[in-house]
């Protein structure tokens, strides 16, 4: 028979301290019959009596006195282990997130995680930095930028600007500067999309339709890109959710379909699988994406 050494030793220690089986069981917060059975099982396991049952009080036998210090150490170690486990569960998991996530979106993700006893601590950073933060162990996991077809989450991109568009699609070729000159309209790429699988594809379309090199440029920040769009006829490469947040009108791009892809990168262990399995839909809402895997 398998003996629950920790539970049995806890009953043994409690009864020895209280002096009776009834009081010891109450101290251990278990019924008296359970305490008796556990101590009896421990005695069978050791092959010796721990208590002298010839009196009304629970008196230790010489063998019981010898075993009591070790039993106390085992119970104390078990209590320490349980305490450390509780602290470990409450320790936040540092997660690197895109800078495009708003405070509300992050707060809603945090709240959803807490419902599952997962505690998150966010660090927002550009795409290249997020992967590096995992490698340097500054965070336990990160949502990294990947090509759309490789991502667990996908965010379609389009072009956003002021005014009311006449159509739902904007072709980049319509931004070509005519012979009459004039100020060329520009497309601004925010830092989140300054990755080869998005930036370089847009540059190739720019060149193919005859736009000037400066008409598709990378901005230093989303704030700077949005400011340039607010003050002109320029356009911002962004998601539909970002356009709504900024009060801009959003259209898809006629010549190309661009999609932000996101995947979880984590260090050794099951952090990536755990986050994907338990918080996949909540991460999708935070990103403004649809979960695909």
TrEMBL record:
<dbReference type="InterPro" id="IPR000847">
    <property type="entry name" value="LysR_HTH_N"/>
</dbReference>
<dbReference type="GO" id="GO:0003700">
    <property type="term" value="F:DNA-binding transcription factor activity"/>
</dbReference>
<dbReference type="GO" id="GO:0000976">
    <property type="term" value="F:transcription cis-regulatory region binding"/>
</dbReference>
<keyword id="KW-0238">DNA-binding</keyword>
<dbReference type="InterPro" id="IPR036388">
    <property type="entry name" value="WH-like_DNA-bd_sf"/>
</dbReference>
<keyword id="KW-0805">Transcription regulation</keyword>
<keyword id="KW-0804">Transcription</keyword>
<dbReference type="InterPro" id="IPR036390">
    <property type="entry name" value="WH_DNA-bd_sf"/>
</dbReference>
<comment type="similarity">
    <text>Belongs to the LysR transcriptional regulatory family.</text>
</comment>
<dbReference type="Pfam" id="PF00126">
    <property type="entry name" value="HTH_1"/>
</dbReference>
<protein>
    <submittedName>
        <fullName>HTH-type transcriptional regulator BlaA</fullName>
    </submittedName>
</protein>
<feature type="domain" description="HTH lysR-type">
    <location>
        <begin position="10"/>
        <end position="61"/>
    </location>
</feature>
């Amino acid at each position: 028979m398998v003996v629950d050494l920790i539970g049995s030793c806890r009953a043994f220690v409690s009864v020895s301290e209280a002096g009776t089986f009834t009081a010891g069981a109450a101290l251990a917060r278990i019924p008296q019959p359970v305490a008796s059975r556990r101590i009896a099982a421990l005695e069978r396991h050791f092959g010796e009596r721990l208590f002298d049952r010839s009196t009304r009080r629970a008196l230790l036998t010489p063998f019981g006195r010898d075993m009591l210090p070790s039993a106390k150490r085992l119970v104390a170690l078990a209590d320490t282990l349980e305490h450390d486990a509780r602290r470990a569960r409450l320790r936040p998991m540092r997660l690197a997130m895109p800078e495009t996530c708003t405070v509300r979106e992050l707060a809603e993700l945090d709240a959803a995680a807490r419902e599952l006893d997962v505690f998150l601590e966010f660090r927002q950073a550009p795409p290249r930095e997020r992967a590096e933060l995992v490698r340097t162990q500054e965070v336990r996991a990160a949502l990294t930028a990947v090509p759309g077809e490789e991502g667990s989450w996908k965010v379609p991109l389009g072009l956003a600007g002021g005014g009311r568009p006449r159509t739902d699609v904007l072709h980049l070729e319509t931004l070509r500067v005519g012979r009459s000159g004039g100020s060329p309209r520009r497309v601004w790429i925010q830092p989140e999309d300054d990755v080869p699988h998005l930036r370089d594809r847009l540059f190739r379309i720019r060149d193919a339709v005859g736009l000037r090199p400066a008409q598709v440029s990378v901005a230093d920040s989303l704030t700077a890109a949005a400011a340039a769009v607010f003050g002109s006829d320029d356009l911002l490469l962004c998601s539909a959710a970002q356009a709504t947040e900024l009060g801009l009108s959003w259209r898809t791009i006629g010549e190309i379909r661009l999609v932000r892809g996101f995947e979880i990168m984590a260090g050794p262990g099951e952090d990536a699988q755990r986050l994907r399995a338990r918080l996949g839909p909540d991460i999708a809402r935070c990103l403004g994406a649809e979960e695909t895997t």
